[in-house]
């Protein structure tokens, strides 16, 4: 959009440049005193007009291990409007999100249909984890045979060790949030963008923010951890509006180990039941029913 912006890096203590029109800051830094002090100082001379919080659903789906998400209400430290964005928050989670962000009633909710008609959802039969790799290999061989030079493949995994194993097997990059595993994430991602390899394997760290237009195949190599993450990952496909495939290779689970405990805003139980095909349901209808109500 060619909008000039400044990036407030983690660990910075310097003041915010007065010429700043758009300021980017992480959720972790946004609740820290040194940042909020700097923001109030610039507000006195150049008023802040709004806060925008992207991926707002994380405040209710991932707040068990990040203090900044539990303290999301502290982000809006000035008396200005706050806009919370999410492409995967189900209607049932909106009241909880409003509470954790400290929104005053009445707040305004604006929704759009999340259906992506260009995506074809394919659910494979459940397999033991050791069989998923063989099946995935066959599918990748078939996909690569028709892949054009600008088209790409994404594979999502739940475990870092498994991602490393698959990256070695397919001779491609592995994108993880752990810097000891992926020390140069920018290079790993750009190598994939530039076609050095046409497959990129990633953990949940890759679910959001990847807007490459020509992702032709999205694979989930095991049952997705939750529905909101699945919708984000699946949404990486077909952003050029060309029909693309989202293929789930679920793993077999024993007993009721997949039932979520407590309020299931992320949809862990829902996606596990859907992938178990119990009861058999239309994938598109089920996903839209979860995401849109």
Automatic annotation (TrEMBL):
The keyword Hydrolase applies. It catalyses: Couples ATP hydrolysis with the unwinding of duplex DNA by translocating in the 3'-5' direction. One of its GO terms (cellular component) is chromosome. Residues 135-293 form the Helicase C-terminal domain. Gene3D superfamilies: P-loop containing nucleotide triphosphate hydrolases (3.40.50.300). Signal peptide: none annotated. Keywords: Hydrolase. Belongs to the helicase family. RecQ subfamily. This is DNA 3'-5' helicase. It comes from Lentinula detonsa. The lineage of its organism: Eukaryota, Fungi, Dikarya, Basidiomycota, Agaricomycotina.
């Amino acid at each position: 959009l060619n909008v000039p912006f400044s990036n407030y890096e983690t660990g910075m203590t310097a003041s915010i440049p007065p010429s700043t029109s758009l300021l980017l800051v992480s959720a972790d830094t946004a609740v820290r005193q040194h940042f909020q002090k700097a923001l109030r100082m610039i507000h006195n001379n150049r008023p802040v007009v709004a806060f925008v919080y992207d991926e707002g659903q994380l405040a209710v789906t991932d707040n068990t291990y990040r203090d900044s998400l539990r303290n999301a209400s502290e982000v809006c430290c000035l008396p200005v409007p706050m806009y919370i964005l999410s492409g995967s928050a189900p209607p049932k989670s909106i009241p909880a999100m409003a509470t954790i962000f400290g929104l005053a009633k009445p707040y305004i909710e604006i929704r759009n249909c999340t259906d992506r008609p260009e995506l074809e959802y394919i659910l494979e039969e459940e397999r033991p984890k050791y069989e998923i790799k063989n099946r995935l290999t066959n599918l990748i061989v078939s996909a690569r045979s028709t892949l054009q030079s600008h088209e790409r493949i994404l594979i999502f995994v739940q475990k870092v060790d498994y991602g490393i194993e698959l990256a070695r097997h397919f001779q491609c990059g592995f994108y993880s949030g752990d810097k000891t595993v992926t020390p140069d994430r920018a290079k790993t991602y750009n190598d994939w963008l530039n076609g050095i390899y046409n497959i990129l394997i990633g953990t949940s760290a890759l679910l959001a923010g990847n807007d490459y237009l020509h992702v032709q195949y999205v694979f989930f190599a095991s049952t997705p951890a939750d529905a909101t993450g699945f919708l984000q990952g699946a949404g990486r496909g077909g952003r050029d509006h060309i029909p693309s495939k989202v293929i789930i290779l679920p793993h077999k689970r024993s007993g009721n180990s997949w039932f979520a405990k407590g309020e299931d805003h992320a949809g862990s139980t829902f996606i596990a039941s859907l992938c178990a095909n119990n009861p058999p349901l239309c994938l598109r209808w089920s996903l839209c029913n979860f995401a849109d109500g």
